[in-house]
Amino acid sequence: MNGETNPTDQQNVPQSEQPQQSQPPQRRGRGGRQFGQRRGGRRRPGQDDDKWKPLTNLGRLVEMGKIRSLEEIYFQSIPIKEYQIVDELIKRSEQYFNKKLTLKEECMKIKSVQKQTKAGQRTRFKAVVAVGDGDGHIGVGSKVAKEVQIAMKGAVIAAKLNLIPVRRGYWGGKIGAPHTLATKITGKCGSVRLRFIPAPRGTGIVGAPPTKKLLAFAGVEDAFSQSKGNTDTMENFVRAIYDALYKSYKYLTPDLWNMGRISENVFSKFSEDLKNYKTKPEDDNRYQQ
Fold this sequence. Notes:
Elements: H1 7-12, H2 57-64, H3 70-75, H4 83-91, H5 93-97, E1 104-117, E2 120-132, E3 137-145, H6 148-161, E4 164-165, E5 168-169, E6 180-181, E7 185-189, E8 192-198, E9 205-206, H7 209-218, E10 223-228, H8 234-246, H9 266-269, H10 271-275
Parallel strand pairs: 9-10
Antiparallel strand pairs: 1-2, 2-3, 3-4, 5-6, 7-8, 8-10
């Protein structure tokens, strides 16, 4: 027909033989996403990622206000699996007991550790951190990481999870607040052996700088100390102090003989509250009163 093509003839041509229009290539980033796109979609307004969402029943009871002090946890020997539990109880101490406490941190040692591999040596950093509130609680933790900041952050979290109670007492008459240790105690780690002896009020802490720092974190004002072994190894020295303070509640003295009351377990006592706890993020309170 004079060189003209019928539009119906193009429809009968197979799709594979039809000319395809070239499209400009799409720039794509990592993971199949285009450049500029964020992973996980858009965030909802008012969404706070820093808000603590407890994952254990102990954390949920702390959030609901059913557990108000660390002593309630230690009395029933419940392990602390979330470091936010310690932060929350320390922060609420003024609200519950009119006693403002602050969890202080101190980096005791940072050293580099190496591992021999086929490609050479791999160097990482190890941090040893001590924490304490100055009111009978102290913790020591360590962490190894490629960077110093990451190691210190992990060591602080480990120290909070290792927080222990320290028993304090008197030398002589029981006048005023407890100022020294209740008994003679000994701790050890590696070759380091450390002994603490109660001291009269006003003596201060007689010992090396790490000993003074950790006993001040524990709230002990007066004590004599004696150490032997390779105390230049800072981590072993710090852990020997921690081991000695850990044993302060292991001695059953006569004044504790009549304090063995048996109380109901907190998980069974507040079982209904845990059952009604809401874990959905859209719920503001996340539990029912």
